[in-house]
């Protein structure tokens, strides 16, 4: 009897082992591929916000199809010294129409934001960003805080592990991508009369933000 019980137990264990062995690769099948051949287009559908007045934001895809960039030329938040309340926060929302080769989709794996900060002692600045495909949950939420005294270029980079990447839904014609960002400056109490500012355009480069992407088949 004991031998039969052990035999049954080992048999059950063997079945479970097979199941787990079979299921494990399936649970981690998220793999990226080389950028596919075919047409990959990114066109700005709409832009609005005081951080990106008409004609000041540009979206360009990389030639190797591994990234696209957004460049701003008039994205500034400032506070202190009698600055109007409306200028203390700058924001921008860009809706992008994306066209991808048939049978493929992409997701954002890394984001890099760059700019310049001139914050007086006690002043603070904050970067908030997020992006999402229309009809899906907001993802790519990033927040970075900066504290004065600071007068230098700044950079904020966020990595997304491949299993956590939000992939564009596989639908004919693709799905629009929304990109939202904001800069907020607080003058603080130490030097409230001194103007502090943050920009989303670095002084040493024309490229402001970079979105690195990965590809996979639908």
From TrEMBL:
Keyword set includes GTP-binding: no
InterPro entries to which the protein is assigned, alphabetical: DUF4360
Signal peptide residues on this chain, from the entry's feature table: 1-23
Keywords for this protein: Signal
Protein name per Swiss-Prot or TrEMBL: DUF4360 domain-containing protein
């Amino acid at each position: 009897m004991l031998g039969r019980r052990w035999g049954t137990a080992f048999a059950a264990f063997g079945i479970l082992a097979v199941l787990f062995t079979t299921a494990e690769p399936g649970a981690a099948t998220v793999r990226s591929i080389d950028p596919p051949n075919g047409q990959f287009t990114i066109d700005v559908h709409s832009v609005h916000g005081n951080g990106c007045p008409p004609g000041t934001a540009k979206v360009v895809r990389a030639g190797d199809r591994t990234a696209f960039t957004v460049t701003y030329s008039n994205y500034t938040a400032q506070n202190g010294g009698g600055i109007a309340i409306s200028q203390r926060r700058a924001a921008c929302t860009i809706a992008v129409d994306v066209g991808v080769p048939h049978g493929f989709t992409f997701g954002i794996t890394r984001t890099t934001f760059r700019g310049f900060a001139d914050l007086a002692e006690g002043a603070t600045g904050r970067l908030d960003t997020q992006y999402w495909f229309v009809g899906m949950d907001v993802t790519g939420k990033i927040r970075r805080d900066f504290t004065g005294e600071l007068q230098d270029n700044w950079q904020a980079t966020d990595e997304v592990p491949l299993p956590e990447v939000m992939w564009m839904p596989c639908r004919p014609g693709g799905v629009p991508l929304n990109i939202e960002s904001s800069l907020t400056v607080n003058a603080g109490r130490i030097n409230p009369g001194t103007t502090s500012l943050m920009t989303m355009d670095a002084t040493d480069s024309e490229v402001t933000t970079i979105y690195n992407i990965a590809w996979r088949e639908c």
